[in-house]
Structure formats: structure tokens, C-alpha cells
Amino acid sequence: MNLLIKTICLNGLLLFAFTGQLIAQDDSDYISGAPEKSPTEHIIKASIASLVNGDLSLFYERIPIGDYSIEAGAGYIFPYYVGEVPDVVMDGFFVDKPGAGYSLSLQLRRYSEFYGGEKYTGITIRNRNYFVKKGNNFIDLTANLGMHFFLPSKLTLDITLGLGFRFDTQKEFNYKDITDIAPINIKLGRQLKNSRNLNISHFFVTIF
Predict the structure, then answer these.
(1) What is the pTM of this model?
(2) Largest CB tally within 10 Å, which of 23, 93, 100, 193?
(3) What is the rounded CA–CA span in Å between residue 65 and residue 63?
């Protein structure tokens, strides 16, 4: 995939992420078995998909003001690496025999009224640092679509699909070194406090 096509695809997703809005849903859109008033002010999550890449990440989401929420996360990277799933690296970008490492994240979300699943769009910047002799650090820039389900028993399921680029920060910047990626993330969460009935129609920024 050449740079022009990459840029067009990414810009299109970014535009959708910033401008997309949900259409109000009626009672027929309720998810069977889901509570009517779901999202909470406090959610603890664990990323299931990231474990395939050896990244054990935990997240805390807080809804402080109106329809906005903040999610922060941190992870420990185990000394092994599987690069294709769930990141789905298209052009080939792998970490050769990495040691342990870490990941950090910060996410801003905007919610809107909706019942059942929490649809959202977003922009993600991800940073992971692997210690491979002198270290190996790369950054992902992706546009995302996803669904956040608030389930019975105060459980949540957050599914994200993305499309974007990967940059190796250890090399001198070169457009030819940009790698296509299509990350998939699945988070299981637990609500700590129920408060409002909100749904996602937002952009978010993630660094991890």
C-alpha cells in the first residue's frame, strides 16, 4: 500500500472520528438482558487482546463532567512478542527477541445518550517500549471504530477495531519505513458505581 493510499485511508477515518454522531435510538434498540441505566462513573478494565502481544494492561475509566470520561492505563510487557495478532501488521514490523518492557495510556472520550451498546469512533496513539539490548520503541497512530457494551452484573465489554500506521522511533524517519497496522483490542471491565445512562459518540485519544 503506497503512502498516498495510506494517507487517504487514515484521513478519512480521522474525519469520521471527529465528526461522527449517533442517531438517537428508540426502545427497540435495547440489548436483551442489559440494564437500562448502565455506564458508571468508575470502571476497571483489563485488555484481553493485548496479552497476545505479551502486554498485561489494566485501565481505569472515570466520568467526571457531563458526557466526557478519562481513561488511564499502564501495562507490563513480558519478554516475548507476537507481532501479527491482534495488531495485524500488514507490511512486516517485528521486535526480535525482546526483553521486558512497559506501556502507558491516556484516553479522552465523549459520550452521548444511547441505549444498549456504546458506539464510538476515535484516534489512538500508542507507545510501547521493549528492552532489546539498547531498547526498541515504536509508536502507532490509528483511527478506530468500536462498541462498548454495558452488561448485567456491572460488567462491561469494550471492542475496538483500528486502521493506521506504525513508526519505529529508533530509526531516522523515512516514509518508506511506515508500516500499516489494523489493531484489535478487547477489554473486559467491572463497574464500581452506577450513576447515569450514557452512550458513546465521541473521539478519544490514547497513548500507550
Answers:
(1) 0.62
(2) 93
(3) 6
